[in-house]
Amino acid sequence: MTKRSKTQKIGLLTTTSLVVGNMIGSGIFVLPAALASYGSISLLGWIFTAIGALILAKIFSHFSKIIVNKSGGPYLYAKEGFGDFIGFLVAWGYWISCWVVNAAIAVAIIGALTIFFPILETDSRISVVLGLLFIWFFTWVNSRGIAVSGKFQLITTVLKILPIVFVILVGAFFFSFENFPEFNSSEVSNFDAFSAVATLTLFAFLGLESATVPAANVKNPEKTIPKATMIGTGITALIYIFGTVILFGVLPLEQLSVSPAPFAEAAKIIGGEYAGYFVAAGAAIAAIGALNGWILVMGQISMASANDQLFPRVFKKENTKGVPITGLVLGSILSSALLLMNFTEGLVDQFEFMILLSTLCALLPYLFTAASYVLVAINKDLFARNSSKIVVLAGLGFVYSIWTIYGSGQETVFYGFILLLLGIPFYLLMKWNNK
What we know:
Order of helices and strands: HHHHHHHHHHHHHHHHHH
Strand content: under 5%
Number of strands: 0
């Protein structure tokens, strides 16, 4: 390994862009349409979810000050509190969710590009080739080092935010309370409607922990990671809430609730056809940036686990840029296989099934991190000085994490646990092999 590979670091701007970029994918460009059918109660769902996300972000921020300069994020924090087995389950599930989500993001990129290239909607062969090209292009970008992928992440994050900010700022002048939906326009009770929108919005904040995963490659991690985590989560929350408010006031409810691209529709009202294309391009860039960021995280989480002898040694292999190249390549091969499955006639349901399996694996790290916070604080002799604050923060984070798992649905929880159970033989094999 070269000396340079030991010194590649990313700073506050890049680390913050990793947080924002991994949370803001293509979903925000279509989610307000799904929320519109419930009415303005959706805003309460956003606020509730944002508060929960900020609580979790605060826990991750505190952990990054307690455990400094070690990569792994939620895996590391869960392992520190509960030991190898729970740490492995978090790493196993989180790693699987990464490469499954990357396949889904590749599909989202293609979907966003159909507005410019309609042939992508009708020719599955071209679509799958393009999806594979995106996956392997960003695998190559990440292989050039975390500084290179970090710069790309910063650029795409700025480019994806600009169209949304444009709609928010300029759209304020086109806002009409006549368009604003009633409080609850659904046919269910206020509580049921609130539960539904809170569930819809919670998935938009997955990725708030992203800054903690490559901690060993962050400059001054004990200062940079907490700032990046809180700033990134805060920026994302504001964009989500204000973006939804503006769309509620610019687009009539009957148009918004059925729109496949509400931000682009609003942009057309604000600035004409070209403004709509500008925002549509932002949706594609949002997914592109998220793919780059999650490929980075995928390689880092598997390497951190391998360094602790919980994943095969092959995942520790780095190239001359200090990149866990084996983890990147293997993960991208699995993402490519899922992408091929999605574009093969008759196998779409299997792809959706895998997404269902991975959802719980993306949520469990929050639960174990919140629970582990108290245990680690006690072990590090930090509990006595701030016992009430630690208990309250960890308790709120734990309760909110339970809510996210409950909100994901019974089927998701059932199949997610099956996926985690499948990792147990793998864990036992690793422990036996390392004796």
